Amino acid sequence: MGTTTPANSKITPKNPAFDYRKYRAFGFAPKLTDRTWPDQEITQSPIWASVDLRDGNQALIDPMTIEQKMRFFKTLVEVGFKEIEIGFPSAAQVEFDFTRKLIEEGHVPADVTLQVLVQAREHLIQRTFESLKGAKRAIVHVYNSTSRVQRDKVYGKTKEEIKQIAIDGATLVKQYAAQYPETEWVFQYSPESFSQTETDFAIEVCEAVCKVWQPQSGQGVIINLPATVEASVPNVFADQVEYFCRHLSCRKDVIVSLHTHNDRGCGLAAAELGLMAGADRIEGTLLGNGERTGNMDIMVMAMNLFSQGVDPELDFSNMSEIVQVVSECNNLPLHPRHPYVGELVFTAFSGSHQDAIKKSLDYNTQHAETADHWDVAYLPIDPAHIGRSYQDVVRINSQSGKGGVAYILQRNYGFNLPRWMQIDFSRVVQNQAEKEARELQNDEILQTFERTYLQQSDYELLDYSVNNKGGEVQFVGQVKAHGETIEIDGVGNGPLSSFIDGLAQNMGSAVHIINYAEHAISPHHLNYDESEIDTDRENKTNAAAAAYIQLTVNGKIYSGIGTCTSTVSAMLKGALSALAQAPVASGA
Ligand code: KIV
Ligand code: ZN
């Protein structure tokens, strides 16, 4: 196109350096008006083929060493791949040597088939077969480009000439395979850049290849359809695949495979829709390494199946180790938001998300006997299935709400805050996160919690007794208030109300309890001082208690928390903690 203005009537862009008119709409969609793929569901896993060691490796800044390839290969086998493209043995000595090493040293399990790639050229095909000598079963994958741009601009060949390259390649593969009868050979052909090829022409070429290979007579044949460049929306790719499958005369005798790249960011969607459109097999890489934007990510597609209750036939339970091997061998970092495995994908910062996760998880705990499947807001899978824990789920910054903070205190430290207490404390946390302009770690949240409610030094409960007196409860005791010991004497219908009555009298303030909650808390969650434990006190429990009190002091609301092995003492300390929040009461 050069610098000439495209001959169309589109509006001149505001910025001439960013001229959308240089592009045109995708022109290779087959005419398909009765497509059936949108009604299909994926109910079983496809045949998976990893191309990490070939397509992935070819795209690396520093290709893998033999040691790295071996480490990666073993991981692929452990994950459960049965077909693994290990390289391009005719292209480089290291590729040839790796193939020989796998075969000669017996690294290939009986149920795993090696696959290698080769161009449709005789000396390369010959060398490829030499590299596979002694393999029990192997897939020889031959390809040539069929797209219009490659025919016209790269090779300068007609459609007939391009078809002939494919026929010649297929013929040579068949001839060389016959020289190694001890191996069970499967032949694979890719009309490279299928996605940008007229679908009828791709079919014509594949028919010609199949005519040579004769899959009808029992020869194993894979026809692999690459979206070498992802050039359109995934539904168009699915149309291409359905059209292809419907029109290939030997469809039932061949395995139809897909190999999608990710140029438009939809390589994985194209593979999924293509599978619905009739394909049997998917080629891709773990974590999506590959030329340019990469290949489709098999791990994500397998986990997508898993999350829909379909057995992916690949095992990612050991995900962190798999990710480590892949990123170390590829020498590529993992994006923190990479689906399923990124550091942040099981994390919720947003308050409403945290709240929903907490509620779903609490609901599931309460209904454990009837909950037969995973159903948690914002979490498509149980992180535990891939070796992650709920530790990762809720993290706190200034966007976080009460649910997240409460979740951390409950899960890590055993404090089960009532809603009104959550509201009170989340304000404190939000202020701190805003002030520090960063995420707060769990231990920082605990420290803030303790500093705010448990370690206040304005009021200290000293000795006391509570006695029933004619239907009323009388509280008599001492409290240290701002360094001074004061006598408290009050009555009420329980220990707390009599304590508050005595305090209010002493302070000359109007103090009323408006909310109260308590729960046992396992002692290891508490950092309490053994000397505080009064063994004579009533209501003593084996577990320590946490008491949450909300009261008004002269009409203003304050909340506090007390902990102790005695529930009564916990309650009274909670009241003092609330009082300490009140400036008026603290003598300010
Ligand atoms: O992307 C591609 O087209 C390929 C082929 C060689 C299958 O990698
Ligand atoms: Zn590729």
CATH architectural category of the largest domain: Alpha-Beta Barrel
Most strands sheet = 8 strands, parallel, barrel
CATH superfamily of the largest domain: Aldolase class I
What is the end-to-end distance? Answer: 78 Å
Which oligomeric state applies? single chain
**Percent in strands:** 15-25%
- Per CATH, what is the topology of the largest domain? TIM Barrel
Per DSSP E runs of 2 or more residues, the count of β-strands stands at 14
Percent helix among the residues? 25-40%
The number of distinct helices, counting runs of at least 4 residues, comes to 17
Content-based structural category: alpha/beta
Q: In one word, what is the shape? A: elongated
Number of domains: 3
Computed Rg: 35 Å
Adjacency order of strands in the biggest sheet: 1-2-3-4-5-6-7-8
| Distinct small molecules | 3-methyl-2-oxobutanoic acid, zinc ion
Look at the structure and give the CATH class of the largest domain. Answer: Alpha Beta
Outline the low-pLDDT stretches: 1-6, 527-541, 584-588
